[in-house]
Amino acid sequence: MLDQGSNAELPPIPAKRYFTIGEVSELCQVKPHVLRYWETEFDGLNPVKRRGNRRYYQRHDVLTIRQIRGLLYDEGFTITGARQRLQGEHGKQAAGLSAQLIKQVRLELEDILQLLKR
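Given the sequence above, the corresponding structure tokens read:
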């Protein structure tokens, strides 16, 4: 499941449907070539490809990338170990991603409420 402490320094994910590889690179602090490599190593990471084979990531892809980043960079897993961990926690991962989405939406709604109160 996504470890909140390991990704605390990462910027918040904006309220958008699709993200380019450059945007995801900045949001997750991982270089684009690393993201392309991870796509080949992790089955759950499948961005939408459109015109000219351009990648468009969705919010759940960004959350998955942050989880992979935490496993590899913060917890010291190997690619194989991280892959096994993600496959082993498939049910828990879905629940964790849902909780993360709910938290993100709640924060965004609170920001909107503050704007409306002004």
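Residues 23 and 42 are 20 Å apart (CA to CA). Try to locate this feature in the token string yourself.
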